[in-house]
Automatic annotation (TrEMBL):
Protein's recorded name: ATP synthase subunit delta
Residues of the signal peptide: none
Gene this protein is translated from: atpH
Localization in the cell: Cell membrane; Membrane
Residue ranges that the Swiss-Prot or TrEMBL entry lists as coiled coil: none
Pfam families with a match to the protein in the record: OSCP
Domain of life per record: Bacteria
Free-text function comment from the UniProt entry: This protein is part of the stalk that links CF(0) to CF(1). It either transmits conformational changes from CF(0) to CF(1) or is implicated in proton conduction.
Family, per entry: Belongs to the ATPase delta chain family.
Chief localisation class: membrane
The keyword Transferase is annotated on this UniProt entry: no
Length: 185
């Protein structure tokens, strides 16, 4: 994605400054709001990316949309406008959130299931995450009926597949290997 490396550098600097000023949690809430707002609005994305729209108008728009943000976050707007990088604001916000979570040792997990997770299942999956990684994680549930049952857990680059579809595929492979007469199941 274009601008990701620059966004990582900005996000890292913002996090360090926010930690120094002891406002990292407040800036995190701001960045979460910025990230969600930009992701949800194609108009805002195109406005920030437009070379035709003047920087001071972009600043007015951002200040109007994000009235109740921390002063450090407003400084980020100014910095990005000065450096002609305001078009990567959404990516900077997302990178900040990732770096923030990493700095407090929180990891994000995506659990794919057929039905929405219950609290009971969430507790069991949290235990499995802790067993696999040694840390807890925030869990995002994704629904996919093609896995038939069970779950697929992805934490970072680790994937644990306990789905029925995966088990059926393994069983099919076993049958094909062990029996030459079973060519297609």
């Amino acid at each position: 994605m274009k601008g990701t490396r620059a966004a990582q550098r900005y996000a890292k600097a913002i996090l360090e400054l926010a930690n120094d000023q002891k406002v990292a949690n407040e800036v995190k809430e701001d960045m979460l709001s910025i990230s969600k707002t930009i992701a949800a609005s194609d108009d805002l994305k195109s406005t920030l990316a437009s070379p035709i729209i003047k920087s001071d108008l972009k600043m007015q728009i951002l200040n109007e949309i994000f009235k109740d943000i921390n002063g450090l976050t407003k400084g980020v707007f100014n910095l990005l406008v000065e450096n002609n990088r305001i078009n990567i604001l959404g990516i900077v916000a997302t990178q900040y959130l990732l770096l923030f979570d990493d700095s407090i040792l929180v990891q994000n997990a995506v659990v794919t299931t057929v039905v929405p997770l219950t609290k009971e299942l969430e507790i069991k999956i949290q235990a499995k995450i802790k067993e696999l990684t040694g840390r807890e994680a925030t869990i995002k549930n994704k629904i996919d009926e093609s896995i038939l049952g069970g779950f697929v857990l992805r934490v970072g680059d680790l994937q644990y597949d306990a789905s029925v579809a995966n088990n059926l595929n393994k069983l099919k492979t076993e049958f094909i290997k062990s029996n030459a007469y079973v060519s297609k199941i």
